[in-house]
Design goal:
alpha/beta; UDP-n-acetylglucosamine1-carboxyvinyl-transferase, Chain; five-stranded mixed β-sheet; 24 strands
Length: 432
């Protein structure tokens, strides 16, 4: 496994560009199974999570052609579910999206249980409650799910949990179900909107995109998609903003999806962060507002209230961890409440090895006190994507040589991150 050597404490300067959204890409890749024809996706991120989904789809017979950030899929042939790549299933939790994508296509099959970030008891029950109401039976065995579909029928579904992948699964099943489905308490997060716009382009009838109630009128089939551009990733944008702020650098982060960062920017403004939002325009797929955000070195104070994530609209659950490096540089003490996952806030304590003052109150809450002078050290990457990149961010701010081991977790969700940071003045060496 490769590792990184980071010579930190350098001021960065220049432009960083947000790449396309990981969570949109993996969901839309899975949704392509619903189209018996060619689908061309552009601006797909070259990341390990996308690689795993492509391996998964290839293993069951989907023809895939890749060229940099372009993927062409053809799922028109008969699928070979018995040949599904067990290892790819195990590595990525996104394989759960096959439950919705295959709801109208495969009557009976096995889906092997998945992994991804180690974030405690991430239950799949909300997925099952929604899918069962639409006609999909899922039985949990020791290492796999036994999935069976008879007839998909639309109906009113109250989402047991407003989860992103849960909602995406319900949407995919409803699109090809007979009749009308009304999803209430649905997630309206960025990746849910993106998959809806993709499915609409393929001929789906979905009303209420961006709201927590969706009306979906079932169609008999979907048509090929000549081209669809994946939206930019708000979590990557927030990561780059966190790099700029924590290292006290003058950087401009381009291609930021504004609607999914506005509350984050408001919190930063209250802390004293100076920034300019400029060049407002539409994303390449024409559906989202995109801007460039210029960050200036600023003196920060701790937030007067606790900070926590919530389903959209709200501070993004995956952006919450990215405030922790910033808070190490803010005067005062802030309570971070990561209520969604049992283990994620525990990983924040890894930053103590770099000089951060972080006190754990329980498995969901920590106090972060600043400002501190971060110090270089050697750390093994936490087994969770955002806490792992937090370590990298703090190493960039810490003067001296740091070593970060087990970088696969970061590479699951970030495309060419090290090279991009080096281009604006960072000193990151990849040691194979």
């Amino acid at each position: 496994m490769s590792h990184l050597v980071i010579n930190g404490g350098r001021k960065l300067k220049g432009n960083l560009t947000t790449h396309s959204a990981k969570n949109s890409a993996v969901a839309i890749l899975c949704a392509s199974l619903m189209v018996k024809g060619k689908v061309k996706l552009v601006d797909t991120p070259e990341i390990e999570e996308v690689n795993r989904i492509c391996e998964l789809l290839s293993s069951i017979g989907v023809k895939i052609t890749r060229k940099k950030n372009e993927i062409i899929l053809d799922a028109s042939g008969k699928l070979k579910m018995d040949d599904i790549d067990k290892k790819a299933c195990k590595i990525t939790r996104s394989s759960l999206l096959l439950l919705g994508a295959l709801a109208n296509r495969e009557k009976k099959y096995r889906l092997y249980k998945s992994g991804g970030c180690k974030l405690g008891a991430r239950t799949v029950r909300p997925h099952l409650y929604a899918l069962e109401k639409l006609g999909v039976s899922v039985k949990s065995k020791s290492n796999y799910y036994e999935v069976e579909t008879k007839t998909l029928k639309g109906r009113e579904v109250i989402m047991y949990e407003s989860g992103d992948t849960t909602t995406e699964n319900a949407i995919m099943a409803a699109v090809l179900a007979k009749g009308v489905t009304v999803l209430k308490m649905a997630s309206s997060n960025y990746m849910v909107q993106d998959i809806c716009y993709f499915l609409i382009k393929a001929g789906a009838k979905i009303e209420g995109v961006g709201n927590t109630t969706l009306k979906i009128t079932g169609v008999k089939s979907l048509k090929p998609v000549s081209e669809y551009s994946i939206m930019p990733d708000p979590i990557v944008a927030m990561t780059l903003l966190s790099v700029a702020i924590t290292t006290k650098s003058h950087l401009t982060v381009k291609n930021c999806p504004l609607d999914f960062l506005e509350l984050e920017l408001t919190k930063l403004e209250v802390m004293g962060q100076k920034y300019i939002v400029k060049n407002k325009r539409k994303s390449k797929n024409g559906k989202f507002n995109v801007v460039d955000i210029e960050i200036f070195p600023s003196e920060l104070t701790a937030l007067p209230d606790k900070i926590y994530g919530r389903p959209f609209p709200g501070l993004n659950i995956d952006n919450l961890p990215l405030f922790v490096p910033i808070l190490t540089q803010a005067k005062g003490k802030t309570l971070v409440h990561d209520w969604v996952y049992e283990n994620r806030s525990v990983y924040y304590l890894e930053l103590q090895k770099l000089g951060a003052k972080i006190i754990s109150l329980d498995t969901h809450r920590v106090w972060v006190e600043g400002p501190v002078k971060l110090i270089a050290n050697e750390v093994i990457s936490p087994a969770s994507l955002r806490p792992a990149v937090n370590v990298l961010i703090c190493m960039l701010a810490a003067k001296g040589k740091s070593i970060l081991r087990n970088t696969y977790m970061i590479e699951r969700g970030y495309e060419n991150l090290y090279e991009m940071l080096n281009q604006v003045g960072a000193d990151i060496k990849i040691i194979k």
